[in-house]
Design brief:
Elements (H helix, E strand, L loop, with lengths): L6 H16 L8 E5 L2 H7 L10 E2 L11 E5 L5 H4 L3 H4 E6 L5 E7 L10 H14 L6 E5 L2 H6 L7 H10 L4 H4 L4 E4 L7 H11 L4 E4 L3 E6 L2 H23 L9 H11 L12
Parallel strand pairs: 7-8
Antiparallel strand pairs: 1-3, 1-6, 2-5, 3-4, 4-5, 6-9, 8-9
The structure holds 1,3-dihydroxyacetonephosphate (13P) and zinc ion.
Length: 274
């Protein structure tokens, strides 16, 4: 099968365009990676070029050895992926040590994977380990309202989680483990990759202060849906704060009732009295 005809590539492209329409991907902002399954890669094997050179990742991810990833290119625009997939996204293979990658499809004209590839791969590494391989997607968006909140709320996961849970009843059910927060750091490097992946042990959503958000998911739909839900509740919070703040809200005891009814565990550290 041609790479562009396979379902995982079509689903990946759908996300990039949906996300562009959301307004989260100005210029080349944001990036996406998908860990391809064995069956999926077998289906497109004939179109892969295994002869390219290995390039250093900059971080070590031994449990991703020999895995294939579909990833957006550095400097590429989400809105253009649908128009020219081969120029804007590509498939890369990790080497046997988890320290280098090679391009096997796409990323034409010397394009490279996103500059946030270290953050993606270190997060994939953690998520693969703790979900028995079920997590396949890491998605970075410049979600407007979440970024805005990082200028106003304390950069503390307890506050971000609780405030965003309060903005929509279903939020604690969609992201019961809460939201991690990374203080401002230089993007694109190993340090921010380490910090993000550390928080990915506990959370599926990690906010980068004054920059954007990383979300993890088992499917492209679930990662996008998670980003959409968290950003929607951030939008409500921005509106509430702009209207002078809350006059009433969902209480800690309401959240305990919700957890019981929906069979989710909500960590008590987010249910503090205010
Ligand atoms: P890339 O174009 O390298 O993916 O960078 C975009 C971005 O959002 C950096 O954080
Ligand atoms: Zn970014």
């Amino acid at each position: 099968m041609k790479v562009e005809d396979s379902k995982f590539v079509k689903d990946f492209i759908k996300l990039t365009y949906d996300a562009w329409l959301k307004g989260w991907h100005e210029r080349n902002g944001g990036n996406l990676s998908y860990r391809i399954s064995e069956d999926e890669i077998k289906g497109v094997e004939e179109e892969l070029d295994q002869n390219s050179e290995f390039i250093s990742i900059g971080v070590s991810v031994p449990n991703l050895a020999n895995e294939y990833f579909l990833v957006t290119g550095s400097g590429k625009y989400m809105r253009n992926v649908k128009l020219a997939p081969k120029a804007n996204i590509g498939i890369v293979k990790i080497d046997g040590n988890g320290e280098n990658y090679k391009k096997v499809w796409g990323l034409l004209n010397g394009a490279n994977p996103t500059s946030e590839f270290p953050s993606h791969l270190m997060s994939h590494s953690v998520k693969k380990e703790i979900t028995d391989g079920r997590n396949r997607v890491i998605y970075h968006a410049h979600a407007t309202n979440l970024i805005a909140l990082t200028f106003v709320l304390p950069l503390d996961s307890r506050v971000f989680t609780r405030e965003l849970w309060e903005m929509a009843t279903e939020c604690p059910v969609i992201f019961p483990s809460g939201i991690g927060v990374v203080p401002w750091m230089v993007p694109g490097g190993t340090a921010i990759a380490k910090e993000t992946s550390k928080l990915m042990r506990e959370f599926d959503v990690v906010v980068w202060a004054h920059h954007g958000v990383f979300a993890a998911g088992e499917t492209l739909d679930s990662a996008f849906g998670l980003m959409d839900t968290v950003e929607k509740s951030a939008e409500i919070l921005v509106k509430v704060l702009s209207m002078g703040g809350k006059r009433q809200t969902i209480t800690a005891s309401d959240f305990r009732d919700l957890a019981g009814a929906f069979h989710v565990t909500l960590p008590e550290k987010f249910l503090y009295e205010k």
